[in-house]
């Protein structure tokens, strides 16, 4: 009987770090999640403590290994997924000069606009694949230089959260091509830092980490950390990629024409191409997975975070009832929404409560209800919010389709995929069959499959179709899809008409909140 093998995926997310241990067949052996805070003292700031996140990595691995009770000699690798677009300034000794400035931080909005309008931003985007937006480390660096020059003067390196973790584990500054391709500073064709982008940011290549392929592996863990995690020092650590591209791999959406839709705290639509591809209109991203796999798509700010707002602000009494009955509070929301006809009787909701990335790329965008009339009740508003999240994803799909063609299949993942109502809503709005894998650990599984490829255990990614287990398929319902075909053009026109007013109301809010 062959020796059992185990593979550990670690996903460093915005609100938590998750470690999941798989066997070779893709079965989950054990897992653990450690949550942490996102510091948002005002609507513009979204920061985290890098050291707290590093402790979360160590703790999640330690607890997962303990739960699994495996012989750690059978642990073949640890491979990483990570959120994108974070920026941390460190000094020559590796000391922190800033917190981790996350993708959700919008203090650099005006600098992003300046880059786009005055510093050849569109041409930089076409080479780097990262839309010019406040999420981008490129814009954050320009903001940091202008607003906090004393920090820039002390900074030896500007890194992201995964780079910080790997430096703590191995004492070296490296960045995988996937995370690098999400900085706005990385030339996709040359697979190296882009000279013009560095000039805009006012930094040199020496102030950034050394770029390496996503399959790059390291051994020789710092002994103290190996002991704490309970794993051997010589276990290969695969640097891995970003959470978005690995979610595509983890749901078996890696063939051209297969589209992945993810809704977690935020959301995204992504598809894989065999070469870098950017959008002449600047609406989509292009990030690296491997040298032969590039992920084109668009991220949205407003996914599960809107669902949480909806629960807390619209359904507090229902949530209290759910708690007493032992029912999940989010299930209550979907049950309420199901009492209303598709289209919420003509009530539309734009879910831009945290600005928006794709397809608007406008940090000033704000949420709104449209079509509200006297006959609309709370349940209509709840349904329109749920529909608005998916409508927004559909607008991203339209942009992706222009670049890569109409998808042949949609694979869905994320917390929302646990809900039958959400899955059907996605199929109806997109008017296409939606396939949902049984496993919800897509980024961790993607990291593991990439790790297996990195150490030579597999020659391609085809194994993932066997590892994801059973799937569920939802076909669009003709009547609901027809209603959405009528409403979507109105939804899209409205967001365009409100562009100038988004800036006006955002300026008013900033003035009175600061």
From TrEMBL:
InterPro entries named among the record's database cross-references: ATPase_NBD, Carb_kinase_FGGY, Carb_kinase_FGGY_CS, FGGY_C, FGGY_Carb_Kinase, FGGY_N, Gluconate_kinase
Q: Where is the Carbohydrate kinase FGGY C-terminal domain?
A: 259-454
**GO biological process per UniProt:** D-gluconate metabolic process
Recorded coiled-coil stretches: none
Pfam family membership, one = FGGY_N
UniProt xrefs under Gene3D superfamilies: 3.30.420.40
What's a Gene Ontology MF term here? Answer: gluconokinase activity
* Domain Carbohydrate kinase FGGY N-terminal, chain residue ranges per copy: 6-250
The superkingdom listed in its UniProt entry is: Bacteria
**What is the residue range of the signal peptide feature?**
none
Q: Which UniProt keywords apply?
A: Kinase, Transferase
Protein's UniProt keywords contain NADP:
no
Is Kinase given among the entry's keywords?
yes
The family database entries (SUPFAM superfamilies) matched by this protein are listed as: Actin-like ATPase domain
Which NCBIfam families is this protein grouped with?
gntK_FGGY
Q: Which family does it belong to?
A: Belongs to the FGGY kinase family.
**Full protein name:** Gluconokinase
What are the leading ranks of the lineage?
Bacteria, Bacillati, Bacillota, Bacilli, Bacillales
């Amino acid at each position: 009987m062959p020796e059992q093998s185990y593979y550990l995926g670690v996903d460093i997310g915005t609100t938590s770090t998750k470690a999941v241990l798989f066997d070779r067949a893709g079965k989950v052996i054990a897992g653990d999640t450690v949550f942490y805070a996102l510091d948002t003292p005002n609507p513009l700031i979204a920061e985290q403590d890098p050291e707290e996140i590093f402790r979360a990595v160590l703790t999640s691995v330690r607890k997962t290994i303990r739960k699994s009770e495996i012989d750690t000699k059978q642990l073949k690798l640890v491979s990483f997924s990570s959120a994108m677009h974070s920026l941390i300034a460190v000094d020559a000794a590796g000391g922190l000069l800033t917190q981790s400035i996350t993708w959700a931080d919008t203090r650099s909005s005006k600098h992003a606009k300046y880059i786009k309008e005055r510093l050849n931003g569109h041409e930089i985007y076409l080479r780097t694949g990262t839309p010019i937006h406040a999420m981008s480390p490129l814009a954050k660096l320009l903001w940091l230089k202008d607003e906090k020059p004393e920090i820039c003067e002390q900074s030896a390196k500007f890194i992201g959260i995964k780079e910080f973790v790997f430096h703590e584990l191995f004492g070296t500054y490296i960045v995988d091509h996937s995370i690098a391709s999400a900085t706005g500073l990385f030339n996709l064709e040359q697979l190296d830092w882009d000279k013009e982008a560095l000039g805009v940011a006012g930094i040199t290549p020496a102030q950034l980490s050394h770029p390496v392929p996503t399959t790059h592996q390291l051994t020789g863990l710092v002994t103290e950390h190996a002991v704490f995690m309970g794993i051997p020092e010589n276990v290969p650590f695969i640097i891995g990629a970003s959470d978005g591209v690995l979610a595509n791999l983890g749901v078996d959406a890696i063939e051209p024409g297969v589209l992945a839709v993810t809704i977690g705290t935020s959301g995204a639509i992504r598809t894989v191409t065999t070469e870098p591809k950017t959008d002449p209109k600047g609406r989509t991203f292009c990030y690296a997975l491997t040298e032969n796999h590039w992920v084109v798509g668009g991220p949205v700010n407003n996914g599960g975070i809107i669902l949480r707002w909806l629960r807390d602000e619209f359904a507090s009494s229902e949530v209290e009832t759910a708690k007493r009955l032992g029912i999940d509070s989010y299930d209550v929301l979907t049950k309420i929404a199901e009492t209303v006809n598709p289209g919420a009787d003509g009530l539309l909701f734009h879910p831009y409560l945290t600005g928006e990335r794709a397809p608007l790329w406008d940090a000033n965008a704000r949420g709104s209800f449209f079509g509200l009339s006297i006959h609309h009740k709370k349940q209509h508003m709840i349904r329109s919010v749920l529909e608005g999240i998916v409508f927004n994803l559909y607008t991203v799909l339209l942009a992706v389709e222009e670049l890569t063609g109409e998808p042949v299949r949609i694979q869905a993942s994320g917390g929302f995929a646990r809900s039958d109502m959400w899955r059907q809503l996605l199929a109806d709005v997109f008017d296409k069959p939606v396939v949902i894998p049984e496993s919800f650990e897509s980024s961790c599984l993607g990291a593991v499959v990439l790790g297996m490829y990195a150490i030579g255990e597999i020659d391609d990614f085809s194994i993932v179709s066997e590892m994801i287990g059973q799937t569920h398929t939802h076909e669009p319902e003709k009547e609901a899809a027809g209603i959405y075909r009528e409403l979507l053009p109105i939804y899209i026109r409205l967001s365009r008409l409100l562009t100038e007013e988004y800036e006006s109301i955002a300026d008013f809010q900033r003035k009175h909140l600061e």
